[in-house]
Design brief:
With 136 residues, this protein is an all-alpha fold. The chain is built from 7 helices and no strands.
């Protein structure tokens, strides 16, 4: 139960999230990486949005088990062939081969974003005023 409720969805969400997409984009885009990342960041939820009304329409006649099994088969049946068709190695991109590309160095903005993500990760773990840790 824990494997199918925690491990499998965790791996699936990690594989379909923004980090693997950013890694793929970094191999394909050098000068317009920000624009490409923005387009992909908008496309991920846009691609997921049809499944909510589709599942809501299919659950009453089919039931939730059959609906989610059907959606899984549809996603795998469409996604795997498309990935096999589109997946290929990116061209070798570097600043040496593209002299017009800017040389990027992590600046203060990158460190501030990292600090923000780090702090945001600790917020849910912080004890609240009504928790048992605050009373001790």
């Amino acid at each position: 139960m824990y494997v199918f409720a925690g491990v499998v969805p965790g791996l699936a969400f990690a594989g379909a999230g923004s980090v693997p997409a950013a890694v793929v984009l970094a191999g394909w885009f050098l000068s317009r990486l920000g624009l490409a990342t923005g387009i992909v960041s908008a496309a991920i939820p846009a691609g997921q949005s049809p499944f909510v009304p589709l599942a809501a329409a299919l659950i009453p006649p089919l039931g939730w088990r059959e609906t989610y099994s059907l959606l899984g088969v549809v996603v795998a049946g469409i996604g795997v062939p498309v990935l096999l068709w589109l997946a290929r190695d990116p061209p070798v991109l570097s600043v040496a081969t593209h002299p017009t590309a800017p040389r990027l160095r992590p600046g203060l903005d990158v460190w501030l974003v990292g600090a923000g993500y780090f702090g945001y990760g600790w917020i849910p773990a912080a004890p609240s005023a009504d928790s048992s840790l605050a009373r001790t």
